[in-house]
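Table S7 (text form). Paired inputs.
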Amino acid sequence: MLELAAVTAGYGPVTVLRGVDFTARAGEVTCVMGRNGAGKSTLMKAIMGIVPVSSGRISLAGVDIHGLPAHQVPRHGLAWVPQGRRLFGPLTVAENLEVGGLARGNRREIRAHVLSLFPRLAERLDQPSATLSGGEQQMLAIARALCLEPRVLLLDEPTEGLQPSMITLIREAVLRLKAEGVAVVLVEQRVDAVLKMADRVAFMAHGRVEETLAAADLTPGARAFRDYVGV
């Protein structure tokens, strides 16, 4: 569904991604792992059109998207939850969801479906998002992205700093999205979380995807984790 072919991208004169090949398939969770500075977050930003691509191709269902302005990319079915959530703190839960659904017309049935994934948010619709717990804010960030009805969902370290119960709720939501046919791309550093969610793991180093392996073939002590993550 989502395909990157020989993508090179970066910030001005600084090249970060160097000929990246990567795919994410419908109904699968593809985890991206690597040490700090490997290019994981830049990969997400390049897909969303925030970091310009200097060469290569990014396509969704066969349609090239790498030349689109960033504000047009979500209309093609891509949604991104950046590291750090980046909610509109003074706005309520309901208002944040409305912002997320602007590009798709804020259909009631979509919001109802999103809230079925995160019923705790349905109890807090009138609450300012800045007053939510960290786990609730992460739920809202994901819910806001899902209001776009994405075919591909990009998640950048969604379990960072969360307590185990919240991590479980987010994992269950990701697996439900996978069952619904969404292609999920997940940047994650926690080996245990990856092995519980992933179908495939793409290991990055020095701005490249060096290996992509089936998660079923990996164990917590696998060579790839030691080589690329340092675990």
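Next pair, protein 2 of 2.
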Amino acid sequence: MPKSDQQLIAECLRGQTHVFGDLVLRYQDRLYHMLVHVLGSAEDAREVAQDAFVSAFRKLHTFQGRSAFYSWLFRIAMNSAVSRQRKNSRVPVSIEAVRNSSGLEPIDPHPEARPDFSMEAQERQAAVRTALADLPEEFRTVLILKEMDDMKYEEIAEIVGCPIGTVRSRIHRARAELKNRLVALMHEPVEE
């Protein structure tokens, strides 16, 4: 039976620092994929994830266990991502560049679907990625945590450091904004 996060952290703090690698293995993929969606770049996501794990290792003694380790780690990663974005302040990347750098290419899971299904699916996914990338960060982050990582409102509030009511409001506004942007991008009504 695998050890819990708390057990691994306790062992690491007692000097068995190699067990931190188990925490990295447990959460690296989840953290990386969330950061790709938040940052829009596989390269930036890799660097921020690496920075987050290094920072978490250095600050592990400050982890008090009041929240899940992943929530704490994700908050560190988000702080790093925000710092990186402020420092870079670069122009948004095209959707083609995001697709090429992230490796997230839509795949048609139903080969029996009509011939144009794959192209339409790609267009819809590209529109969603574009619309999502255009959302303000405060809306994009909470929406990704809720919809893609299936986090509870309480966890999201802890990660982003704001009240649950604010999280609910941001998610509601993010969904409305995303819908409006999709309608504009696709020039057709989006079904609810």
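The longest helix spans residues 164-186.
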